[in-house]
Description:
Keywords: Membrane, Transmembrane, Transmembrane helix. The protein has a two-stranded antiparallel sheet with strand order 1-2. The protein is mainly α. Strand 1 and strand 2 (34-36) form a beta hairpin. The mean pLDDT is 89. The N and C termini lie far apart (46 Å). The chain has a domain at 141-207. It is built from nine helices and two strands.
Amino acid sequence: xENKKYPxxxxxxxxxxxxxxxxxxxxxxxxxxxxxxxxxHIVNFVLKIPYFREVxxxxxxxxxxxxxxxxxxxxxxxxxxxxxxxxxxxxPFLFMVLLNKGPEFLMKKDVIPFIWNKIVIPVTTIVPVGxxxxxxxxSYGLMEFVGVFMRPxxxxxxxxxxxxxxxxxxxxxGSYSLALLITNRVYKEGKYxxxxxxxxxxxxxxxx
Length: 208
């Protein structure tokens, strides 16, 4: 089979975007005594903005609760109905966090405060920030390039495409929420089957 030749501009774009994406998502650097990927440093900078957690977290939850009702999509299927109801039931916990008042067993540092500070705020911050740069590793050929070399490993062991190696590395080196974001994006583009997406999301993306 004849090898396809690409214009120099395409090759340069692939190399430049891929290298920037690799640096942002996969290369730990030390800053202020903390070693993590550049994207995490950006998120940590955002989280240090005064009152960011309280204002941003509250807005995200309020919008998330009422948007389905505003768009009249809350009852389009059983899943939407269940999640819409659960979101409403979660509102009292938001006020417990903001007012720092509630049942003692819920206000212990490893219950509601932990969920708020370690899951809700970091995840809802890193996802939109990560989305800005996500195309660098998804849309310019990096996943396909890596996939060619990793297919002999990923396919027989985990039954997933070679490109899923990017998800695995993103989760281990960076953030599980970013890895889930990558998986969701690639799945919606039709590059993962239902089974592959489930394996990748549950097998590679987890909170430590």
